[in-house]
Design goal:
This protein has 12 helices and no strands. By secondary structure, the protein is mainly α. The protein has one domain. It is elongated, with a radius of gyration of 19 Å. Belongs to the ABC-2 integral membrane protein family. It is found in: Cell membrane; Membrane.
Length: 249
Amino acid sequence: MKSRTGVLLGRLMRNIMRSPDTIITVAITPIAMMLLFVYVLGGAIKAGTDNYVNYLLPGILLMAIASGVSYTSMRLFNDVKSGLMARFITMPIRRSSILWAHVLTSLVSNALTVIVVILIALLMGFRSNADILHWLAVAGILGLFTLALTWLAVIPGLTARSMEGATAYSYPLIFLPFISSAFVPTKTMPKIIRAFAENQPVTSIVNTIRALLYGGAVGNGIWIALTWCVGIMIIAYFFASKAFKRQLG
């Protein structure tokens, strides 16, 4: 299984490397948002930090990942509609390898996008006092978040009837950080919006990453963040597997 998954992964990664504009395009919107909020709106936002890019970066990274996973839906949709999926199914490979190749491709490509965004943030003044263990924890949480959203992306990639339908689901995910602690503290929000913001997954994930990067108290927040990521991943995997079985006939 590993070798066959590796071959399929290599096929998808070669497609990405032939058109690196995919990674660049995914990174453009989060980077543009970071520039806008830091240099245009940052002076008017009271986030309790001297360097607003430090406060902003965790949410921007989640936006970048949410944007990037839409390409998983697009690649799966293209494989289904072009007949490649049907051809793969007839080959002597484990059928789960087909989906895992797409999922691992998303993990690698989104990691590259995250690196690009962090490099731009460094140029904008981002600094962290986190040690290697804290950085590894941040990488782990971002990886779990990517896997959770990617398995969500698999579902419309297999079931959508049009390219627009395959990728449209990602738009709410991209804008979910706006109703969270990603850009401003939730205590500044009206009560109803604050209640939603404080109890949706992005806030706990953002707060945990922020604490890990800047030496804050992680507390129970990390377990809430991990529960959200793992819970979404398990549920999405279940429905994605069901959709794939229907695709197999």
